Amino acid sequence: MSIERTERETHILGRLARDGSLLVGALSRDLGVSEVTIRTDLRNLEDRGLLARTHGGAEATGYRNVLERQLQHAVEKDRIAAAAAELVADNDLIMIEAGTTCSQIVTHLGARRGVQILTNSTLVVRHARVHPGLTVILTGGTFNRTSESMVGPVALRSIEDFNVRLAFFGTDGFTADRGLTTGFAEGAEVIRAMKARAAEAWLVADSSKYGRAGFVSVMGLADLTGVITDGGLAADARTDLINSGLRARIV
After folding, report:
1. 119 lies in the same domain as 243
2. Structural domain count, the chain
3. Partner residues linked to 135 by β-bridges
4. Rounded Cα gap, residues 95 and 101, in angstroms
5. Burial 17-52 (b: 16+ CB within 10 A, else e)
6. How far is CA 26 from CA 32, 57, 145, 174, in A?
7. Which of 22, 51, 107, 137 is the most exposed place for a label (fewest CB within 10 A)?
């Protein structure tokens, strides 16, 4: 992807986060490119589940804070998601928890065949629909608009019916001493339930999350198989992760 295209996509998603909808003609004038180029950009973003095309433009597919989170550390999140996808083999059984970085894992699984994914994330469903080699099972539950996820007792019971090789989680913050934390208690319950049904549990989180401590404790770092994060992680933080016994992958 060229720098120019990345900048256009950032502008488009930013406009959607602010306004909720946009028009091709206006974008073409603002960005100084043809309407054909804008339509191609919109189609690519729709294929990744980031917007819905309309006649003459596009509209947001979820709440604005989800789009805003997609924009934060976008390059790092994509590298992390690509590295997580490398762990997935053909015919694998995996779980993917809600979160912007987690959902992007699916965008890198297009070449896989026979992969079955259990998820509580509606973003994962949007990404996966363009990849015929993937089978997606969405948990039931109560829809949480802020996180674009299914939570609650029904979601937890759904997770208990499955066993997988890999589970991928996000987090609002993680530290060596407090482990994974979040501000969303029902989301923490889903992570714990998925971890209990997986042979390997992986945290996928950009380096800005390290050192933060959310309101709700989820689990300790020792409960994880490994963590995939980006090179912005400070040297002492890397040492903390290694000393915790985790398989740490820095991308």
Report:
1. yes
2. 2
3. 116
4. 14
5. beeeebbbeebbeebebeeebbbebbeebbebbbbb
6. 10, 9, 29, 41
7. 137
Question: For 78-124, how does the pLDDT look when each residue is reduced to its tens digit (9 = 90+)?
Answer: 999 999 999 999 999 999 999 889 999 999 999 999 999 999 999 89
Determine the Cα–Cα distance for residues 68 and 204; give it in Å rounded to an integer: 18
Whether residues 150 and 31 share a domain: the answer is: no
Q: Report the largest interatomic distance among the alpha carbons of the chain, rounded to a whole angstrom.
A: 54
Looking at residues 14-28, what average pLDDT do you find?
84
Of 72, 126, 129, the C-alpha closest to 101 is: 72
| pTM confidence score | 0.75
User: What's the CATH code of the domain at 217?
Assistant: 3.40.50.1360
Q: What is the pLDDT of residues 31-42, one digit of tens each?
A: 999 999 999 999
Backbone angles phi, psi at 248, to 5 degrees: -100, 125
Residue at token pair 């390059």: 75
Find the domain containing 29 and state its range: 3-69
Which residues, 6 or more positions from 48, have their beta carbon under 8 angstroms from its beta carbon?
Answer: 104, 107, 126, 127
- Count of beta carbons in the 10 Å neighbourhood of residue 225: 16
